[in-house]
């Protein structure tokens, strides 16, 4: 016996009409009639007295069986509620997607401190480029995501919470900065003749940085551009290259005194944001989201 047959029985009992019951279930009237006939054959008796398609009533056998069918349907609803409660309160894993190099951005500190404070709980973290992050959010394969909102855009069923602004800076060696006569701040146009290395691990960010240069009137001279930040760091440390990177990652990735951080006049700025699923509640996810908001936005959360 299929569960949908019991749903058909309840619909006909409620509407006292095969046509109205079929409309409420979004199926054809003939399909509904076949399902009721199969249910009657299975139970061994006529469930409805058919006056016409627009007027039916329960037979004595239907009245008798309705108590059992209604109990089954009520148990089904209880089971769904119990399932929701279990997922809300007992599921002890949180799936989070982040941009590449998240370890150098400072975001891992609140993530690990939240996990450490929860019993029998862990965070499953996935690092991807922004193109892949978009796909994960669109397919709802991550409950929380961290990335630049100007690149990711708005995603249905996800709340976007801006956490901090991240500006583009120029990173070079002190020797090269002295050679160019640069101070602590320059305009991006001043770097138009600089040999650059930009990593292509995240093509969305690579394209954004390239377009930032183009908007300032030049196409950057790129060398060794298909390498990772670790390789670029070695080239910069010996004065052979420079790069443009966002500050949250750069301060940790380029951590020795060999490197000079040059600020830009009116620098391009992206917003590091948290995307959190908001279509239905879940205790551990909602607690995590509140924790991150309090960590980065204490003044905002204090106003609630």
Explain what the structure shows.
Helix content is 47%, strand content 23%. It is of the alpha/beta class. The chain folds into 3 domains: 77 residues, Winged helix-like DNA-binding domain superfamily/Winged helix DNA-binding domain (Arc Repressor Mutant, subunit A); 102 residues, Periplasmic binding protein-like II (D-Maltodextrin-Binding Protein, domain 2); 104 residues, Periplasmic binding protein-like II (D-Maltodextrin-Binding Protein, domain 2, 3-Layer(aba) Sandwich), CATH 3.40.190.10. Strands 3, 4, 5, 6, 7, 10, 11 and 12 form an 8-stranded mixed beta sheet that branches. Strand 1 and strand 2 form a beta hairpin. It is elongated, with a radius of gyration of 30 Å.
Report the top-level CATH class of the largest domain: Alpha Beta
Could you tell me how far the N terminus lies from the C terminus, measured between alpha carbons in angstroms? Answer: 52 Å
Strand content: 15-25%
Reported CATH architecture of the largest domain: 3-Layer(aba) Sandwich
Any idea how many domains?
Answer: 3
Order of helices and strands: HHHEEHEHEHEHEHEEHEHEHEEHH
Question: How helical, in percent, are the residues?
Answer: 40-55%
Q: Sheet with the most strands?
A: 8 strands, mixed
Summed up, the helix count is 13
Question: What's the number of extended β-strand segments?
Answer: 12
CATH topology of the largest domain: D-Maltodextrin-Binding Protein, domain 2
> Which geometry do the CA atoms define?
elongated
User: Which structural category fits the helices and strands?
Assistant: alpha/beta
